[in-house]
Amino acid sequence: MFHKAILLDKGGRLVFFGTPTDMLRYFAEAEHQHQFGADLGACPSCGTTRPEFIFDVLETPLRDLSGDIIYEENNRGQLVAARRYSPEFWRDKYEAFRLIQDVKLVSLRKEPVPALPAAPAQRRRAPIRWHDEWTQLRTLLRRTFMSKLRNRANLIITIGVAPVLALLIASILRYSDSGHYDFASAYHIPTFLFLALIVAMFLGLTNSADDIIRDRPVLQRERNLNVRLPYYVFAKTVSLGVFALVQCILFVLLGNYVLQIRGMFWIDLGIVFMTAMGGVSLGLVTSSLVADPKTAANIVPLVLIPQIIMGGALIKYEDMNRNLALVYSFSRWFSEHPTSEQFTKMDSKLQVPLICQFIAMRWSYEELVVAQAKLNPLTRRQDRTQREIDAIVARHEQTPEVNKRLDDLKETLAMLSGLEAKSADELDRYLALIDEILDRKRAFDRALFKEAVGAVTAEQLYVNQKISDLISNAEMEQSDYRRGGKPNVFFGSEKSYFRVKVGVFTFNTAVLVGSTLALLGFLHWVLRRQLEVRRS
Questions:
Q1: Phi and psi torsions of 321, nearest 5°
Q2: What span, in angstroms and rounded, lies between the C-alpha atoms of 501 and 504?
Q3: pTM for this structure?
Q4: Where are the domains of the chain?
């Protein structure tokens, strides 16, 4: 059944390694040599030896002069038969046996140097067995999930910490200048968005900072079993990502509800989840580079604190040391006495220092704030309407259908600018009617909005003044004609690199996803190198 068999005595002492046949022959000779009295149990018809006699030989009891078995007390206080020969005896006996076998294999006579072997024929690559690959991936996924679900206390803390932090942070930041809280004049919405990202990265880091450390004995044990390392990294990332997703859902759901952030759940969840996955990948890389959980826990603040300081919320970039911007420093060096006009052209206060470009929090915070300003239910419909108006005007068409569509869009844009209702639900119903107009499902009819009057306005529900101020400041800096171009400023809606313009959502999402994939690729490389060193 087995090609090789290994036998370990108490304390992990090796007493035999070889084929099962050689093992039976070895202990049969030992029994014949020492006369242990063990029954070989050979079958009279086929000569098959009873394998259990090996343990009878190893554990031959020690007897007194009268032949009675001598008993001794084990570490549990139980009386067991004392062994005639200790595990050290069998280990030394096997080492001597193996040494003799090695000496017999050495030829003492000189032989001519054999010719170099012929180059081996190139073996064809074995076909991929997709069923086996899927079975291995499924097994790794099940094992990683079960390792998380078995620890009930840790699971409860993992799931419960997100809503507790959401309620705590949102309750503290629920403040308006007017005294009565409303979203439009809420003072701490940018702060809440930044803290949501910090919490997401922190939870991702703490959930994964010791995972590789705990799995390292398993990886070392399975390194010769052809376990696919990419499957392990994928399974670990997916399992941690599922728990991070649950935490992000609970945090965003409760935080947005307390602070009355409407219509932004899925967008906020996507950006917060990308940040959490960045924290997961950072935690896994940290776990692969250290040897014990305490060291990994000490590294978490070292990773998280630069994200907080250089993320763009705690310390504004215009208030940060400008020498951190490499391009700015070189420009000042090469221009000994710049005039005020040259100084204005070369510098923008909202430009991000070079070192901060490597901080993931800078990209996720910028994307989340711009999304709150541009993708909220009101501004998104206004921008969509304005884009369609601009496209129609640029075509210079003067057909009756085009003119009717243009008039409908102008009426829709005017209605959106001053949309009112008696309640938030009624306002959402009017927005649904506007969607039908934009989708060409119906024409604009002012009679549909004749009752759109009330104390609740769309701007009060969806537009926050603090967020709008940040975006307006960035747009003014980016459109300053004195610089001769549009610099890449913080909270700018567009990025320009090598004369290629990319939207902030596309670019920042690519940076966040790409950095996470790069960290996971680095994790795979580190684990492969570690296992190769241990194998060699």
A1: -55, 115
A2: 9
A3: 0.73
A4: 5-98, 133-311+512-535, 377-462
CB atoms within 10 A of CB 247: 26
Of 385, 401, 392, 386, residue with least CA distance to 434: 385
| Contact present, 465 and 184 (Cβ < 8 Å) | yes
What number is the average pLDDT over the span 315-328?
70
Pairing of strands 79-81, 71-73: antiparallel
Taking a C-beta distance cutoff of 8 angstroms, is the pair 323, 329 a contact?
Answer: yes
Q: Within a 10 A sphere around the Cβ of 261, how many other Cβ atoms?
A: 23
CA dist., res. 41 & res. 44, Å (int): 9
DSSP codes of every residue in 305-336: HHHHHSSSSSS-GGGS-GGGSHHHHHHHHH-S
Q: pLDDT for 71-118, tens place per residue?
A: 888 777 778 788 888 888 888 888 888 888 877 766 544 455 566 666
- The CA distance from 340 to 346, in Å, is 10
CA–CA dist 236, 238 (Å, integer): 6
Residue entry with tokens 């684990």: 527
Cα separation, 65 vs 67, in Å, equals 5
Buried b (16+ CB within 10 A) or exposed e, 520-530: beebbeebeeb
Tally of residues, the chain: 536
Residue 1 carries which DSSP code? -
Number of Cβ atoms within 10 Å of the Cβ of 194:
21
